[in-house]
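Input record (one chain):
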Amino acid sequence: MVLTAENYYSREANEEYMSVSQFKDFSGTYGKMACEFTAMEKLKERWEEPKSKALMVGSYVDSYFEGTLDSFKANNPDLFKRDGGLKAEYVKADEIIERIERDAYFMKYMSGEKQVIMTGELFGAKWKIKIDSYIPDVAIVDLKVMASITRLEWVRDIGYLDFVRYWGYDIQGAIYQEIVRQNTGKKLPFFIAAATKETEPDIRIIHVTDNYLAEALNMVQMNMSRVLKVKSGEAEPDRCELCDCCRKNRVLTRPISITDLTADI
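The corresponding structure, as predicted from the sequence alone:
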């Protein structure tokens, strides 16, 4: 299957190819609970995650730099109030865009080819990637809009973690770097172009160095055997029993113990 902008997110593409977001659905990150059952329900198009305001703001900013903001607005009438003006969160998105464009260094990283699709093979699977800003021979750049760049997240048994590793963006960088290498023969650095939704938007260019990418790629390799068995139907998907999809599809067969309520503490 040849991937295009039109079919990249289709069921057929998701069944044939692994993607970073799909992998994280199966295996999770420090900040995202893994649920194989939900991952399979999404693949079969029986479950769709609700679009959060945070996700929509990020998509708004992404679409601006892709040059598709007009169509994004047309396809998402919920962006607007009854009087036709943008809702507050998208007014903030415009402020973020304005702040980004005032910084020449940030814009240098956003100057690459937009939404570049590449495919490759890794750990027994075909992979697909879509790069926000690809600067040939120079860099791979992913644009992220978030609440805070500097806020740390607490992870049990580990301690405080930066947002990059907490949300698995190191996994994204590792896969993107390897697939680009397969297509071009060049191992390019991976950067996150980050902007925040704070009162005064913060902006940073973050180099996710190769040592972190190597660790993340090793983690992907360790998990892929299980992921592929579940995706192919060879193994039954585990349920987290805590997410919306599991709650919606829960069928009771027996009582639980009080100790089951604290099993994950």
